[in-house]
Amino acid sequence: MTRIFVDSDVCPVKNEVYRVASRYNLHVFIVSNSMLLVPQSPLIEQVVVEAGPDVADDWIAERVSDGDIVITADIPLAARCVEKGAYVLEPKGRILDGDAIGMALAIRNLMTDLRSAGLMTPGGSTFGKADRSRFLSALDTLVIKAQKPRLRPLTFPRE
């Protein structure tokens, strides 16, 4: 059964996640460092973790499994989840899969190095209507994909 994990402290698409999860009857974990306003639903579970760097990320990465969906803009968390077979979607609608995560990590690390060297780097664009629409479309696509059986490569016993 596919579950959705939301890295939710600053996630702008929680309402969209609730709508899609309700439509497909999927369990959602809203993971944050503080209490948030979350609809009352047996499908939605709020998880409040201790304050601290990467505590919410660690909670998600430890529990996510193959076929789950993770909503996050955090690239290192995305990489950890992709490694476990989860589908990862950024709030702006970009899917981070095995093909895209390497490049996303490289760019993130480059920008971090540039900032630590004192260079000004451009910030991200603001979140708009087109991003919300792209997110909804991508989430719907991922839910359908996650619910289909995946083919696994054949493995042969070792001699």
Automatic annotation (TrEMBL):
Protein name listed in UniProt: UPF0178 protein S101468_01334
InterPro entries on file: UPF0178
Family to which the UniProt record says this protein belongs: Belongs to the UPF0178 family.
